[in-house]
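Help!! Second protein's tokens look totally different from the first
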Amino acid sequence: MPTLAVSLRETEHGPGRIQLTVAPTQEAGRSIDDLWSTLISRPGGAIPGSSIVRVERQPAQSQLPARGMILAAVEPGEEIRVNFGQLCSAFGVNIEEMRLVVESRGNEALVTLYEAAPLKVARRATRELLTLDAYGRYTIGTAHDGSDAKVHMRSASGTFHGFLVGVTGSGKTVSLALMCAAWALAGLASWVTSARPDAQMSAVGRHVDRQGSGPIFTWWLLKAAVALMDVRGQMNTEVGHDYSPHSPYPALTLVLDEFNSLTGDDLFGDEIAQMTDVLAREGRKFGIGVTFAGQSLNLDKLGGSSSLRDQVQGGIGVVLRITGSIAARQATGSLAGDTDLPPVPDRLGAHRSLMDRMLGTATDVPGETTQGMGHTVTGSDATMMRTLYVHLPDDGSPDGLDDIFPASGAINTLTDREIDALSALGLWHEWTMPPPTGKDDDGEGGGATLIGAFTPPPAARKPKKSSVKDKILAVVDREMTAKEVREQVDAAAGTIRNALSDLVIDGKLHQPQHGVYAPASADVSAAAEQGPAEGEQLPEGVDAELLMLAADLVVTTRFGSQSMLQRKLRVGFALAGALLDALEERGLVGPADGSKAREVLVPIGADEDVLCELRADLGAVLQD
């Protein structure tokens, strides 16, 4: 019998038994050529009109199982067509076994049949694998033949566009994390948005410049990106060329996850589609790329999927498990072209034959997950692979993202000039407030402004608190730290700090040491024996050392700017905001006021005292 028509597998019907399957049934001595002509190359067969060019058999190598390979071709000038289901049937292989792999290109197809599924094990991601090689590619997974599955950072036309399609549970979020890490290692800045909040993407968000969710956040993100093209256009004029690795600004990638849901939003969907179309068509000159992601993609609202497909050719395209029998062309909004991608089952080897069902043979083996299995798509070429693995927990345990993003922990951001320009336009803030209506009174009537016009959002000022000196004097009846005073006085921390300083100057309170206050007549001899306060709870991602660095910058420069902290500390925008919130709680800065820098509440000349007091409040060992 032809070797490729025979398969062996262990059974559960008895110890030491092996099930041998021969399919299709052949008379003894029939050659592989006969098998091919009878079931595969015939009209209506698996690969009609094809003929065998070469047959190779390879033994097992390391973790790669033994395999047989057939190179087949149709006549020159014709395009080869493969019916994957029929081909599996011809070789007696179940699709769920994932042992048969077909790669078609032009008039040729390479059919590989493995003894066992070659992609059972996912390889752990590393910085080395995600770092660009000499050809501008990074490794996103392992191909079925054991080689690295590589994708280009930029498309053949020079864009950073790409697409990622996969249903829930297919490994889409892990793939997005890998892409963001590769971009970070290459020096790119990333903005990530999705239709709904996702805890795992929030974890990724701690390593990128901007990350959020919902149509409002997405509207602001795209609005800022469109405005950024004008800013970068001026910079291009000054240096005399469009974006290149030598440009004075970093490339920027925009990840739009669950794109269909975002463009389907009743209020903002049309404008999200409109701005995305502008960025997809014109972003190349300004180093801005768009990565579309979702369970499937519908690009009907954009200017034309054909022009997008032309720009994505040669770039990154990943198709993981997709819904049911939806073709790759439909699932990717035509971005995958006419590439024929074999289906990826929900479970690996989760198959019970009809004979087993007839005989009532029970099995409790559910099969192994195919998470991360899919295809990389480049132009008309597709390679079956399994993405690299990085731990993104769903149980609250630590993730593995620190192992793949830059070791320095620094986050790539826009340049100072760009952020200042977006701030002046009212576009650099939390991106959570409703978009302006364009009306002078911002009242009813009229939707969000169009791309060509922008109205900065009205500032939402918070009233300042009144003095609380009398309350402080009533509380301070012994030696107390500033933290203890704040805990007993119902007032803003900054107000309390300023009132304490005024009361010391007025002689109504005594300050035996930094951060400690007592009644003016109190005996302060024991003040030095009092140790620092216990460590305080800090927001997630904020440690005491980082907070002290932020405090030092804000107090010494007297500039409570979120974008300044973002640039100076090389942290994400969200973390910079969390640092300012923590400083607000401790009375160093005032509340947020739109995109404006926060008011610094520390009296001039009190810098050293305030920083010493904060260091005592944190109760942590900090390096000067």
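Here's the second one for comparison:
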Amino acid sequence: MLVRFMMLMLVVSVAAAFAMPEIPQKRALCSALLATALLAAAVFASSSAIASLARRLGLLLILILAVPAIYMAFQLAPIPVHGIGNPIWETASAALNAPLAERITVDVRTTVQAILHYNAVVALALLTAVVALDKQCASQLLYILVSVAAGVSGYAMLQQISGLDTRLLLVNSAVPAALGLLLSSGMMVGALEQSRRIKQRSGSALGWAAKLSLAVLAMLICLARILVGGQTSVVVAALLGMVIVLAVFAIRNWFYGIWGTAGVLATSAVLFLASFTIVPMRQDTDLTIALSRHQQAATERMLQDTAPTGLGAGAYPVVLPIHRDIGTAAARERPTAAAAIAIEMGRTFLCGLLIVTVLGAATLFRRSLLRGHDYVYASIGSGAAVSLAVLALIEDGILEYGASLLAAALFGLAFAQSRPSTASEVSYSRSSRSANGVNSRDPMNPPMRPSAFGNASVRLGLGFVAVVLIAQSAWLLTQRPHLGGLPIGQPAFSRTSIQALSSTPSKSLPAHGDLGAKIPATAQPKADETEDGTHLASLNAFADALHYSPLRGDLWLMLAAISKEQTSTRYDLIALLKLSYYTAPNDLTLLPLRLTVVFGTGSVASEPELRELIKRDVKIALADQPALRPALLAAYQSAGADGKAFADNLISELDPSYLDSMRARTSRQGSR
């Protein structure tokens, strides 16, 4: 009953990760389900299951799993030594007139969310390992994972073919399809092994035939999903993993002994190297983005500016506006997973991760050769490690929530079945290795003995992870929405709309996550709200958000707009405007409000550096983006005498004819 409950929670959490939109409530639901199941395993699992799990984990694997979380926590922690953290914290501290501790990460919230994401992945892998300790449950879990991968791939393919709204797409990458190819190939090998055993015993062939049919069907669906998307490089990455699975099958059935194994491995290595001639590779670029098909101009700049310690887990979308080209949509920049990890965690961490992946693939490959009938699970895990390492250089799909959970379940299944659980299985595994000509000595699979970690330690560890997940769910559900979001597509911001923004209560400000959130221009303060109270609440709301996310250019601009409209002396308006430019220099959605604020502030003309930044905005509106000319006109019309004189001076240098036209239109509007 316990195993069935854990399997149900596992399946529901993975399915919810794909089926639900990307919102905090989805992650909270998945975390709550995983926490409940893991806590049940910690309390009610049998002693033999806990001992088997401890034997598979080992101290080394526990340390490997803990290192990323520890490193992300280190990025998040305040650094007492001046100069080690990111310089943005010192700059923001001066602009906000508040002491801010230096940190490695540039955004506290995104790094916290990255830690929670990683905790969910580890929890799902542990839960899968507990369930897959039973051979029958492992077989059922393989069917389920194949069905999930095929279902997600089929639905995504139908949406892409039919041209439905891509915002409803379950997953934007082909990683589930690639993992589905691996899982289905492993199921196919398992069906062939089962058919051979049945023939030796003269049994019924219905079971293995149905298994083989399901595997072939799932393989065709996943392959079609990848080909429909035109992602040939993803097919190559998936085939490399399938080569590992087939190599294990060939060694165990036809190429016995050390020379046969060496021959198969040499053939696989040749195929691996030859595959890169099929995948187009860009020259004279960073290796982490050389295999990507997507636009990577901003990512390449970020890679050049990244510190060895990284910019903070999950910080890539926050840093992107600084390096993005003018007018380029954020969705067009699709970094590879390797590039994102190098930017967020540092190149040293990326190299270490690749080394661990290679060692993990080799370990699972070795164990698949040393097991009995159930070697297919370890071979799938070895192939998945190879495929995901290549996919990390091609696209960013492995970092998506649903894809990462599916990969975690796959590796949990592989490690759970990488070693025999009972003495009879150990005896059979040894006899099988002797019959196949494999050395019976197994340094990686020693005889069963009591684990160095007692049952109590493992139960406490599982309970600790469950408690962390419960805290994660509570944090996600109670977290105050991240402020930000400015209107997109509106030609200008009138003085009335800025007054409305500055007088809007902080509770009704738009939430973070989409800069396209609409702020009604007609919003007016309630009659019972005092101007001073609302002013203070608005300033505090944006300032508090900047204490944790100092690279949000839209927040700096909004804080400047409110300070200017309310003539607040709490912050230096020039410093706020500068930070708005520095943190979002090429975001055209901010240009209308930014021009309105700077033209309405006479003191900006005395700041040479800020004057050049404003001149750049005016040049963009006049020459590069003519669609923004109405925004420039509206900002000019709302400016005072000093602001209009400043604007006249700038525009006369760039386009005197448009200045005459703008003055004429302003005069006609004033005479009405």
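Reply: Different proteins will give different token patterns, so don't panic. The radius of gyration is 29 Å.
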